[in-house]
Amino acid sequence: DGSRIATVGDDKALRVWPLTALSYSVFHTRVQLASTTIARCTAVGSIRASGGGISQRMGNLALNDSTITACKAEASSSSGGGVLVRSATFTIDGTHLIDNVATTGAALVYESAPSFDAQSTLSGTRFEGNAGGSSVFASAAITWACNLGSWSPTIGELTGDFVGCAHFCAPGAV
Q1: What pLDDT, in 10s, does the model give residues 49-73?
Q2: Whether the Cβ atoms of residue 110 and residue 137 lie closer than 8 Å to each other
Q3: Pairing of strands 108-112, 83-86
Q4: Which of these, 95, 84, 89, lies nearest to 41 by C-alpha position?
Q5: CA dist 7 → 13, 55, 169 (Å)
Q6: Could you tell me the pTM of the whole model?
């Protein structure tokens, strides 16, 4: 029937579980958040921590017109202070990822898709004030909806503050 249970663990990360997960069945989680603010969340680990604000590890995450701010992953190796997506897909649109902290991908980490042809999309998203080695880290391909004259790589690391896509095209580029 689509029933879900939301939990916040000791690491302060929000997790949404389908009721079927309680019986260890195979399931597909779809988390949809619109006009939502997630603030001051922390994932803590002694060696590794990830997904301070949102940790989506299966299914699909839809994040629209929302804000994830001042979230962090704290450990000697940390990733996805704002959002971690692993073995899942996402659509993030018109969202602000601000002042998040992690050693890799302070705002967003996309580790892996559930299948080779799965698509994850970023559009009109603001990355600002995120602290760590990079703002965005993607080892799986991200489709960026860029304005004319801008671009972002589908995989790799992006640093700094930007809205939409991280790079501007060279003058005269086609």
Answers
A1: 888 899 888 889 999 999 999 999 9
A2: yes
A3: parallel
A4: 84
A5: 8, 12, 43
A6: 0.82
Question: Which two three-digit tokens encode residue 132?
Answer: 């760590």
Sign of the CA dihedral running 94, 100, 106, 110: negative
> Would you state the torsion angle of the CA atoms of residues 136, 137, 138, 139, taken in this order, to the nearest 10 degrees?
180
DSSP class of residue 165 equals -
Stretch (H or E) spanning 113: none
* Over residues 16-34, mean pLDDT: 59
Q: Strands 108-112 and 136-138: what pairing? A: parallel
Contacts of 60 (CB under 8 A, 6+ apart): 28, 29, 30, 31, 88, 89, 90, 91
Which residue reads 């998203």 in tokens? Answer: 125
For the CA atoms of 10, 69, 89, 164, the dihedral, rounded to the nearest 10 degrees, stands at -170
CA-closest candidate to residue 79, choices 56, 111, 57:
111
